[in-house]
Design a protein that fits this description.
Layout (H helix, E strand, L loop, with lengths): L1 E8 L4 H12 L4 E7 L4 E6 L5 H11 L2 E2 L3
Antiparallel strand pairs: 1-3, 1-4, 2-3
The structure holds copper (II) ion.
Copper (II) ion binds next to helix 1.
């Protein structure tokens, strides 16, 4: 299992957290998504390392922006 942390901006409430969790959680191989609303930190657990572009697309689909690392 691989755990990666991403920074997402624009989330303001629990609904935003759910939207991001759902989209990122739908990426193949992802088994867990933890979102910290206060910091915008999203911790993703997956079977293998995720492609950054895939994560970016999922966050974008949810309506938010992935902050460049
Ligand atoms: Cu919200």
């Amino acid at each position: 299992m691989v755990t990666s942390t991403y920074q997402v901006k624009g989330m303001t409430c629990g609904h935003c957290v759910n939207a991001v969790s759902a989209e990122v959680g739908a990426i193949p191989g992802v088994s867990d998504v933890q979102v910290d609303l206060a910091s915008g930190q999203v911790t993703v657990t997956s079977e293998s390392p995720l492609d950054a572009g895939t994560v970016r697309a999922a966050v974008d689909e949810a309506g938010y922006d992935l902050v460049e690392a």
